[in-house]
Amino acid sequence: MAEFRDSISIDASPETVFEYLITNEGMTAWMGQHADLDPTPGGRFAVDIAGHPVRGEYLHVDRPNRVVVSWGFARSAHLPAGASTVEFRLTPTSSGTRVDLCHRDLPDTEVRGHADGWANFLPRLAVVGAGGDAGPDGWQPLPD
């Protein structure tokens, strides 16, 4: 299994950024077209991204420092619902927040596609976290 890591800086407090990881409206402002979230340990994490149903659960919710969710795709043999783990760490900085992302337990065949997805979505999180509008998201998964 592999992992993907990245980080971004956001001109907003960790408290503000945190809301974009735990609310339906916040999540869909930067990632996905539909979200059904229950941000409690063991609670539902369901986000539909470009027609792909991401399913898992919240594993850790430490306001406003850390969110960990299980992640996978409904009806997928390659990365089933809840098979991998996504961790967001929010650290205050002098200008706002640094978000460190770690997506663990990815099959090697899934790293390229997820790296492409996170390269699209993390900058969108930076825009909305700072109070902007990321606009419509036209991201599509890479072809196999």
Counting DSSP E segments of at least 2 residues, the number of strands comes to 7
Q: Uncertain spans, ≥5 residues at pLDDT below 50?
A: none
Number of contiguous helices? 3
Taking the sheet with the most strands, its summary is: 7 strands, antiparallel
- End-to-end separation in angstroms reads 19 Å
Mean pLDDT: 97
Q: State the strand order across the main sheet.
A: 1-7-6-5-4-3-2
Helix content: 25-40%
Q: How would you classify the quaternary structure?
A: single chain
How does the helix and strand content classify structurally?
alpha+beta
Rg from Cα: 14 Å
The helix-strand sequence is EHHEEEEEEH
What would the principal axes of the Cα set say about the shape? globular
**In percent terms, what proportion of residues is strand?**
35-45%
Give structural notes.
- By secondary structure, this protein is an alpha+beta fold.
- It has helices at 14-22, 24-30, 108-129; strands spanning 2-10, 34-37, 44-49, 52-62, 66-71, 84-93, 96-106.
- A 7-stranded antiparallel β-sheet has the order 1-7-6-5-4-3-2, with helices on one face.
- Strand 3 (44-49) and strand 4 (52-62) form a beta hairpin.
- Helix 1 crosses helix 2.
- The radius of gyration is 14 Å and the shape is globular.
